[in-house]
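Module 6 notes. Inverse folding takes a fixed backbone as the condition and produces residue identities as the prediction. Think of it as a translation problem where the source language is geometry and the target language is the twenty amino acids. Below is one complete input and output pair. Work through it position by position during the lab.
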């Protein structure tokens, strides 16, 4: 599962419906889409996942489910992403098995050091800036703080939280595997064009 250059996280509060967001991101060439909706029921998430999975599969794009372990298992998702409060990471790994990719949100070095060896495949680290799409996020650690986490991490890291156009070069320099974005795509007037621009920016020399 290729993380970079752009990892798109869906936004249920955006003007465009989530399936339209997914189609735009996929059309732009984003390699990975995370389906996230903190308010939806498991049944609603399962229905949404079943709606968008044919789109991602047809394009060879990885579909990751946020938080909902059983939904990820039920649809045979490419990956599951969980946060610090979503349960014991070793137990989650045991539940999903060895083949599904598992990502974890990390905000501090202490959280990084607490991860059991071999449990996760990648990390979502941040925030780069405070963001309205995750108001309960930790205070931004700054580029130096993010760089320390990336340097210490045994797996690839994507930076998430307030990432926008113009950030790719500095995040690539500190070793990020990619940028994870929500509103930079979902709230753009032209979502596909916004996603393409982010990809071009990351790939620029």
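Target side of the pair, the amino acids:
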């Amino acid at each position: 599962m290729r993380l970079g250059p752009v990892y798109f996280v869906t936004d249920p509060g955006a003007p465009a419906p989530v399936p339209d967001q997914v189609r735009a991101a996929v059309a732009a060439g984003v390699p990975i889409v995370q389906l996230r909706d903190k308010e939806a029921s498991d049944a609603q998430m399962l229905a949404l996942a079943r709606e968008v999975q044919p789109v991602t599969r047809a394009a060879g794009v990885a579909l990751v489910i946020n938080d909902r372990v059983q939904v990820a298992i039920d649809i045979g998702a490419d990956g599951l992403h969980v946060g610090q409060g979503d349960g014991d990471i070793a137990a989650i790994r045991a539940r999903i098995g060895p083949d599904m990719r598992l990502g974890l949100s990390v905000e501090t070095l202490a959280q990084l050091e607490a991860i059991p060896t071999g449990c996760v495949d990648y990390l979502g680290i941040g925030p780069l800036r405070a963001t309205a799409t995750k108001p309960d996020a930790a205070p931004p650690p700054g580029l130096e703080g993010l760089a320390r986490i990336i340097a210490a991490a045994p797996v690839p890291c994507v930076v998430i939280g307030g990432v926008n156009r113009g950030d790719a070069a500095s995040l690539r320099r500190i070793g990020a595997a990619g940028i994870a974005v929500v509103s930079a795509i979902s709230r753009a007037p032209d979502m596909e064009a916004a996603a393409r621009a982010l990809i071009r920016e990351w790939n620029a020399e």
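Reference fact for the lab report: The chain has nine helices and eight strands.
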